[in-house]
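=== RUN LOG ===
request id: a7f3
mode: sequence -> structure
chains: 1
length: 257
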Amino acid sequence: MDVEFAIRVTKPGPAAISVSAAHADTEELTVSWHGGSELVEFAHGTRAEVFALPAGEHRVTYHAERALTDPEPEPVTLADVAVFTRPSRYCPSDRVAGLVPPEIVKLKNAGKQVEAIVRHVHSRLSYVVGSGRATDDAIDTLLAGEGVCRDFAHVCITLCRFLDIPARYVGVYAPGLAPMDFHAVFEAAVDGHWYVFDATRLAPRQTMLRISTGRDAADTAFLATLGGELDFLGSTVFATTDAALPVDDGSGLVVLG
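=== RESULT ===
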């Protein structure tokens, strides 16, 4: 994985950078300003480096490598159930009742319901690069009928939570994604464990690597100001695998690394 982006700090202050791949074998994060940083770790493996950045332009680079493994599914805890069945900023599951297909509600098995949600969102929404606004929640996306990966994930999470299925948002590196960028998917609880789903079907889930996990996109930004102000000047993201990319038709349970 390789990431590079540039920022212009207009008001000095701390900024949190969260681009670290989970369980990386080797990694290096550098900022063109050579001051110190502080590592902050959140739940579910999310990490952020906090830099106190002075005014001016800065370049951030990140490189990591990790061997692909066959991970064991993570158990869903009671705390997970308490957090990831609630409405959140971009996933207003308490206001979506009129937009949930009745045939999905009638299904009795959580696994079948999640699969039906993924199929429904894949067919219901058009993936349009550059569509949507940063303020759009899942209902806005459903009414618009189009979005990008974060919007697809928000809609799926919202429908899952409406059905009392714990669901959480995950930022990932996704080899095979085109155009290449950070990618957003979601995990849902099936038979007491977390499995990854992606209604965009733009990249195989088997080679995705976790960056950050949270209730929705508000918890998982790769760059956030913590008192300062900055302009984002652009980025490049590159993720690949040495082996051939697997075929993923969207069916079956996959564990996210």
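=== NOTES ===
Residues 110-124 form the longest helix (15 residues).
The mean pLDDT is 95.
=== END ===
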